[in-house]
Structures are given as structure tokens and as C-alpha cells.
Amino acid sequence: MASMQNSTFETQVPTEYLIARVTQIHSSICKLESLRPSKQVNALFTQLVNLCILPSAIDISTIPQETQTMRQNLILLCGRAEGLLELEFATFLTKVPNPMDNLDLFPYYGNYVKLANLEHTILVQNGVVQPKRLAFVGSGPMPLTSFVLATEHLKYTSFDNFDIDESANNVAREIVSTNVDLEKRMKFRTCDILDVKEELKEYDCVFLAALVGMDKDLKVKIISHIRHYMKEGGFLLVRSAHGARAFLYPVVEEEDFSGFEVLSIFHPSDDVVNSVVLVRKPVF
After folding, report:
1. Each residue of 78-125: pLDDT tens digit?
2. Is 195 exposed, middle or buried (0-12, 13-18, 19+ CB in 10 A)?
3. Residues whose CB is less than 8 angstroms from the CB of residue 29 and which lie 6 or more positions away in sequence, other chains included
4. 202: helix, coil or strand?
5. Where is the secretion signal located (predicted)?
6. Measured in Å, how far apart are the chain's first and last C-alpha atoms?
7. Which residues are within 8 A (CB) of 34 and not within 5 positions of it... i.e. 6 or more apart?
8. What domains, with CATH codes, occur in the chain?
């Protein structure tokens, strides 16, 4: 057993090296003229992701303030680059026949499938088998999670996708319009989730994308808002990040779910980037 532990320890990326490399990549990203997909942009973000999914013992809460500031900026840059990549690819899909048959051309499609499969497994393990209505907050132009869940797992569920960006929703709508079944079950709403109130009671389950609420205060405010208005016994699934993956996405801690019952916290150790937290609003 000791030798196994030692070999694990030896393969971990040292924290100092990790921070130095991430800082270096952040500096290169800051020098880019644009975050739109290109060989250079794709190469830098691929390097960053590949680095951050390596085993490491980094505790993000203990890194120096200067590194925290860099991390916050890097998360914003990752979010913008991800949005531009999705928009470009989703726009391309609207121009090909049967776009739903070509989702696997998206560079990170396999990752989304793994994450959606994982999230579905966690839901089923906690008694969420075929929810009637599901809300996905922060769906973007390329709502792959909704697509995978709707076509592979939740074939009778209605999906309402919420995004603050009308242009993202327009592209997503166009993709869905090519599929008769999905067009019946999938809607797109352009609004700030903080403006959605009583309607939240209609959902059996709400998904919160990793990039909704980019700073801690806003994330907690959104979680609290959803809890206030969602129905008793309803489920909220939140994407988070753990360890070095926290250089890519915001972190949500267990204490951020005040008033919820925490059912499951899962931190991946493979090439899936996001952690998954499932909570339920208690029934009083």
C-alpha cells in the first residue's frame, strides 16, 4: 500500500511548478489580440486544461493574493474564449444538414458527454429518474448538456434553457429547429436568472452552469435566489471546480448551499474538468 501511495505522490505536479506554468500561460493569453478560436488560442487553452487536470495537491484557498487575482482574471478569459468557441462552432452547425448528427465535431464533445453521463448517474442515484421539467441556467449557443441529456437519458423531459445572451439563444434555437422531437421539448429563454421568480417552482431539477456567477458573491446570490423560489423537494445541480481545475472555473463550497440538503459532491480525476454538486430544497 505504501508503494502505491508513493507512486501517486511522485506523479503529482508540485504546487510551485503548477502556479508558475499557469502564470506563464496566463501571461501568453493576455498578449493575444483576440480570444476567437485560432491555432494559437486553441493551443494555449489546451495546454492550460491539460495542465490543470493533472493530479496535484494544490489548495486554491491558500495561494497568495497575487495568484488569486491572476486566477480570477484567467477564469474570465477562459469563459470568454469558451463562449467564442461555442458560438463559432454552433454557427457553423446551423449551416450544415442535420446539425444534431454532427455535434461530435465539436472539439470538447466527448468531455460534455462524459460530464452529462456522470450528472445523469448522480441524479438517478438520488432518485431523480425522469423529471418532467428541467431548467438549464447558462446554456449558451451550444447547449450540449441539454442535447445529450434530452437525446440519451431524459427522453420525456421538457428542457427550458436560460441564457442572458439573445444571440446565443438564437443560434441554439436554430440548431434545435432541425430536430422535430427536440423542438417540441426544448425552449430557450433570454433573461437574467435573478429576474426569474415564481416560474422556478415549475422545475423538478435546475442545472447551474459553471460560468454563471463568475465571482463568489454573485454565485452565492444566484444559488440563494434559486433556493428561495424553487419548489420544496426540487433538486439543484451545480458545476464547480476542485484543485488545479479552479484555475479554469469558479469554486462552489459546501457552505455556499445554505438552506439546502447536500446530497452528493463529486470531484473527477480524469479529463472531466467540472466537479458536480447535487443539493435538494428540503420539504417542510
Report:
1. 999 999 999 999 999 999 999 999 999 998 899 999 999 999 999 999
2. exposed
3. 35, 44, 45, 48, 74, 77, 81
4. helix
5. none
6. 47
7. 41
8. 1-284 (3.40.50.150)
